[in-house]
Specification:
- The chain has 13 helices and 20 strands.
- It is an alpha/beta fold and about 550 residues long.
- The protein folds into three domains: about 210 residues, Rossmann fold (3-Layer(aba) Sandwich), CATH 3.40.50.1460; about 45 residues, no CATH class; about 240 residues, Alpha-Beta Complex (paralog of FGE (formylglycine-generating enzyme)), CATH 3.90.1580.10.
Length: about 550
């Protein structure tokens, strides 16, 4: 054996071995309740999915727990969060009773829980916070984290508490929260050995060459086929190429090609945009991507946009994007970064910090009364002012009611609208400007509908001809093509209220952890506010259930199609 060969062998042996991916899972099934209605399938569901993760997907650490009391649940979650440190993929699954508290926090019920009327202090003592589980697992920093809540089986206590269903609690970058059904709704326990959601999820996870986003869309479609009243949902952001088998890889190109063919066949033969959007989520540059977009356009005719007077802008206004006759027009906001906050305002605007924002869609205008009524019903208009009819922005809308509208709009349209994050809102309002307003540092009634110069009360002056709300789109659009980002009505965003920007995300995502969970952020000022409140950096807040005749919102949408 020559010296050269021995040297090569030594060098190969000395190379560090490639670390195997660490994938961990905790699955809890609670069925044998002492004070709530006993359930049939949660334990079976946890066992089924545990087997899929262990045998089909080769997870190296799969723990299945059954019928836990509150101490055992807390201990299991705490130990799992420790094991999740340094993992590539983390999966938490809970099956059983769940409910929201009166202040809209989610709780998972141990077997000895007795919910009564569901007041928050009582739940804190005898149930496990779903938000706490999310935060513990998010802190582990895995590349992919799934929190799957197959909860609210037909409503705890027969639904007597009045708090049936879970509420949206937010995901994050690399973290997806999946729900067996919509917000404030209940899931079916099923008639067979497993719940419809667990059964569909187990089947989807075994389609190893399907991306995670496509898998959860497939689950939603399968469950709705069997139970039309149950619509599984998800929130959070995962990469489009994220897989459960290997976080960011495509393990079998030939099988992937066949699965792409199957996904395109569903799109081509479908009656709604959902299968086409699922195809594009998984294959944004796929062989049929252009045809899928054409098919989506056929299913969603674009509504003609009323032309507006040309405005001398430094940046060309992008064309609006509209998905249905009752959906607000959307404008594509380009990706970029900006300095969020200001040293010139109140302490809650500090410290200015650089934020990077991915391209997304933003409502061209605030949601109008006509758009609200088309989704919620003609008799459900909460607005105080109707001097401009359906073209007036809807107001008197709480953050919770805005979420109700979004949920119903998404169910009706098959799209995934949401509120913008606070960072997205300020980035879109500034439109690459650095002054107090997108047009400069001096407020002007030629550019926005607002109140008196010294504090409050409606004022009609110059182009601002309205004492209260103005019809949307009456003032020049900003360089991104957005109307009324300053004035008219305050606009809700997704974020929880924090007193300053210490610890704020820098990736453009909504800040949903910490802070005052009962209060949400408002931006933009309104028809009766003084000019300082209209500044791009100005922040306001209110209770999530609070509303006023100067409070409305506009929509955003994650840009899934490049």
């Amino acid at each position: 054996m020559n010296k050269t060969f021995l040297l090569l062998l030594f060098l190969l042996l000395a190379l560090p071995a490639q670390a195997a991916e660490k994938r961990v899972a905790l699955l809890i099934g609670n069925a044998a309740y002492l004070h709530e209605r006993t359930l049939q399938n949660p334990v079976n569901d946890a066992v089924l999915l545990g087997k899929v993760l262990k045998k089909e997907l080769a997870f190296d650490d799969v723990q299945v727990e059954k019928n836990l009391d509150v101490k055992a649940m807390d201990d299991a979650v705490e130990k799992f969060a420790a094991r999740a440190q340094g993992a590539d993929v983390v999966v938490f699954y809970y099956s059983g009773h769940g409910m929201k508290s009166s202040d809209r926090h989610n709780f998972l019920l141990p077997i000895e829980a007795s919910t009564g009327r569901g007041d928050s202090p009582r739940l804190d003592r005898q149930a496990v916070s779903a938000e706490s589980i999310r935060d513990q697992l998010k802190a582990a920093g895995a590349r992919v984290t799934l929190v799957i809540l197959d909860a609210c089986r037909d409503g705890p206590g027969g639904g007597k508490s009045g708090n049936k269903g879970l509420t949206r609690m937010g995901g994050g970058n690399g973290l997806l929260v999946a729900y067996a059904t919509e917000e404030d709704n209940v899931a079916n326990d099923g008639q067979g050995k497993n719940s419809p959601y667990a059964e569909a999820l187990a089947a989807a996870l075994q389609q190893k060459n399907m991306t995670l986003l496509a898998q959860f869309d497939w689950v939603s479609d399968k469950v709705k086929e069997k139970y039309p009243s149950q619509s599984p949902t998800r929130e959070g952001t995962l990469r489009a190429d994220a897989y459960l088998l290997s976080p960011f890889g495509k393990p079998d190109p030939q099988k992937q090609e066949r699965l792409e063919d199957e996904a395109w066949a569903l799109c081509r033969g479908g009656a709604t945009v959902v299968p086409c959007q699922s195809y594009l989520d998984s294959y944004p540059q796929g062989r049929y991507a252009r045809l899928a977009r054409v098919r989506m356009a056929d299913l969603q005719p674009v509504v003609p946009v009323t032309p507006v007077a040309p405005v001398n802008l430094a940046v060309q206004t992008p064309p609006p994007v509209n998905h249905c006759s009752y959906c607000p027009d959307m404008v594509v906001i380009p990706a970029g970064n900006f300095m969020m906050g200001s040293n010139d305002g109140d302490s809650d605007e500090k410290q200015p910090h650089r934020v990077t924002v991915q391209s997304f869609e933003m409502g061209k205008t605030e949601v109008t009364q006509g758009q609200w009524k088309a989704v919620m019903g003609n008799d459900k208009n909460p607005s105080s002012f109707n001097t401009c009819g359906d073209d007036c922005p809807v107001e008197n809308v709480s953050w919770d009611k805005a979420q109700d509208y979004i949920r119903k709009l998404n169910a009706k349209s098959g799209r995934r609208y949401r509120l913008p994050s606070e960072a997205e809102w300020e980035y879109a309002a500034r439109a690459r400007s650095t002054g107090a307003y997108w047009w400069g540092d001096k407020a002007s009634h030629e550019y926005a509908n607002y109140g008196e110069d010294e504090c409050c009360g409606g004022l009609a002056q110059g182009r601002d001809q309205w004492v209260n709300t103005a019809p949307v789109g009456q003032f020049p659009a900003n360089p991104f093509g957005l109307f009324d980002m300053h004035g008219n009505v305050w606009e809700w965003v997704e974020d929880v209220w924090h007193n300053n920007y210490a610890g704020a995300p820098t990736d453009g995502s909504a800040w949903l952890s910490g802070g005052d969970q009962a209060r949400r952020v408002l931006r933009g000022g309104s028809w009766n506010d003084y000019p300082g409140d209209l500044r791009s950096a100005y922040r306001n807040q209110d209770s999530a259930v609070g509303s006023n005749n100067n409070t409305g919102f506009r929509l955003a949408r994650t840009l899934l199609i490049p």
